[in-house]
Amino acid sequence: MSSSDNKNNSHSINPAASEDGISKGLANYGDRGFSLFLRKAFIKGAGFTDTALERPVIGITNTGSAYNPCHGNAPQLIEAVKRGVMLAGGLPMDFPTISIHESFSQPNSMFLRNLMSMDTEELLRAQPMDAVVLIGGCDKTVPAQLMGAASAGLPAVQLITGSMLTGSHRSERVGACTDCRRYWGKFRAEEIDAEEIAEVNKQLVASVGTCSVMGTASTMACIAEALGMTVPGGASPPAVTADRMRIAEQSGTLAVEIARKRLTIDKVLTEKAFENAMRVLLAIGGSTNGIVHLTAIAGRMGFEMDLKALDRMGRETPVLLDLKPSGQHYMEDFHHAGGMATLLRELKPLLHLDAMTVTGRTLGEEIEAAGPGFKQDVVKTAKNPIYPQGGIAVLQGNLAPGGAIIKQSAANPKLMEHEGRAVVFENLEDMANRIDSPDLDVTVDDILVLKHIGPKGAAMPEAGYMPIPKKLAVAGCKDIVRISDGRMSGTAFGTIVLHVTPESAIGGPLAYVQNGDRIRLSVEKRELSLLVSDAELARRKAEKPAVVPTAQRGYRKLFLQSVTQADKGADFDFLMPPMTGVVPKVK
Ligand code: FES
Fold it and tell me: Where are the domains of the chain?
């Protein structure tokens, strides 16, 4: 043992000496001195010296998992974060939490998001750390981490794992998952054969990392930076690049700085930050899931989301980012075009530039520090946008009294003003059984309705992107109006109405739509109407009242008892504090 370790030893088991670092949050045996003595005995078993244990402790969430290729670079990121922490004089402590991947989460990843947020929150609270670096990337992980960190209240930095590289199929550039859906659609329509679909399957995901288009993962990466929760430029570097590793190192260094400054998360996640994030969500043509997640994160800070105000904001926020599925490029192109600095510079007149970020500087100061822009063709100008209004519109009407949304930038303009006959599927199983039947009574002018995929109905799977009925797909139909209380992947496209609230499983009007009813969609008027009289709807309701799903045990029981509707972020009611504000405040 070094002399300095000897010198520090008696001091550092005195619990009154410090409430920070390794002395924080002691296990309670009724004797704080003993608790600290015991903790140090155990950690010294791993070879730590007292000198190391005197430093600010920086937690690093390790969300690496063999089941999560979107986090396949987690070991390298953790090494780089640790380097950054130690360069700044901190002690890095990585620890595992739940990791969620979209394709390896049965019944679906949304079911597990709140569990991951609880896991993250409780481990941030239970283990001693002065700040934390949250490593997340795949769709639900960043929202879960920000929700958990918001509730835990520590200084926190979000580190994004980064996007995957794009692949190439017969000279065409491809990437998950807009091209996954496009090629699968071609296969269903019998435009390509089994051999080609197997070939393309090897090219869609060309490396570890998150989906390469503006899906939910990329959306949440941009939102995290817009919220001020990442180091500047933290959203866009692909997973396998040196830039991504540098961002990781900087995240570690920054975590030590914010621990010393005690820049807690509530100083960053303010009403202004959420309003900035909403602007960005609209301007990037972001995933519709971004609204649910942003609502949930804001809810943890006591801010309620005003969907009507969000829609008003959308009318004055153009889509500037030319990325699939609304545009043509991929995340790595966005990075080469300067990433978020390029976008934020263009959006400046619409942003709160005085919002604080984790760097301790304001968003406006960070935009200035990024320097002047350069010629590129991925981020358009406000005068020449990809789409004149925000990517997402909020609909209302007797079919969705609590609201519904549509990603208008990824919809077919010809179908956005449409009245049609309802073709109803009662649940996912019903749809799976009948959608490809040659006997299905459906035409291209109809409107597909899928019930029971809301929060309580089925934990909001991304099934709102219903497949085009096979007989229409083979005849060349590429889009049809679809309505549900579920979600869709941010990588999907089409004229698809989602998040109908209240959901059918709790007796929302959607539950009472019948085959042959007329439905009117007007994105221009923000209208979603079931053209059936109130009296008839009341009669149907009385005839077949809703039976709200329940479960006997475990997490599913907790989920069904506590999950809120989409307009509240589908968070658990007992995790949300009393609401003290409303965002956005746009009039
Ligand atoms: Fe992980 Fe798309 S599946 S980001």
Answer: 1-54, 167-201, 392-549
Q: Say how far apart CA 577 and CA 302 lie, in whole Å.
A: 6
Q: Whose CA is nearest to atom 3 of ligand 1?
A: 102
CB of 486 sitting under 6 A from ligand 1: no
Tell me which of 207-216, 318-327, 428-437 is least confident: 318-327
The response to whether residue 211 sits with its C-beta less than 6 Å from ligand 1 reads yes
**E-strand spans in 336-416?**
392-397, 400-407
Please report which confidence band the pLDDT of residue 6 belongs to, taking 50, 70 and 90 as the band edges.
very low
The band of 491, judged by pLDDT with boundaries at 50, 70 and 90, is confident
Query: Is residue 254 within 6 Å of ligand 1 at its C-beta?
Result: no
For residue 167, the surrounding DSSP H or E stretch is strand 167-169
pLDDT digit string, tens, across residues 65-109: 999 999 999 999 999 999 999 999 999 999 999 999 999 999 999
What is the rounded distance in angstroms from the CA atom of residue 437 to the CA atom of residue 474? 12
Q: Taking a C-beta distance cutoff of 8 angstroms, is the pair 140, 452 a contact?
A: no
Find out whether the beta carbon of 101 lies less than 6 Å from any atom of ligand 1: yes
Ligand 1 centroid from CA 544, angstroms: 39
Centre of ligand 1 from the C-alpha of residue 142, in Å = 12
Atom 1, ligand 1: residue with shortest CA distance: 138
Residue with tokens 């989906």: 211
- Indicate if ligand 1 lies below 6 Å from the C-beta of 462: no
In contact, 327 and 285? CB cutoff 8 Å: yes
Pairing of strands 156-160, 131-136: parallel
Ligand 1: atom nearest CA of 103 is: 3
94-124 exposure pattern, b = at least 16 Cβ within 10 A, e = fewer:
beebbbbbbeebeebbbbbbbbbbbbbbebb
Give the three-class secondary structure for 163: strand
Of 551, 570, 289, which is closest to residue 455 (Cα–Cα)?
570
Contact 392, 282 (CB under 8 A): yes
Residue nearest to atom 2 of ligand 1 (CA): 211
| DSSP 3-state of 187 | helix
CB of 94 within 6 A of ligand 1: the answer is: no
Query: CA 363, CA 361: separation in Å to the nearest integer?
Result: 7
Cα dihedral 217, 222, 225, 227, rounded to 10, equals -100
> How is domain 392-549 classified at the architecture level of CATH?
3-Layer(bba) Sandwich (3.50)
- The secondary structure element, H or E, covering residue 158 is strand 156-160
Query: From the alpha carbon of 210, which atom of ligand 1 is closest?
Result: 4
Cβ–ligand 1 contact at 221 (below 6 Å): no
Ligand 1 touching residue 163 (CB < 6 A): no
Torsion, Cα 470 171 237 352, to 10 degrees, reads -60
Is 144 in a helix, a strand, or coil? helix
Are the beta carbons of 213 and 175 closer than 8 angstroms?
A: yes
pTM: predicted TM-score of the whole model, two decimal places = 0.95
Using alpha carbons only, give the angle 153, 114, 148 rounded to the nearest 5 degrees. 10
CA distance 32 to 39: 10
Report the C-alpha gap between 24 and 91 in whole angstroms.
Answer: 14
Cβ(460)–Cβ(505) below 8 Å? no
What DSSP string describes 356-369? B-TTSSBHHHHHHH
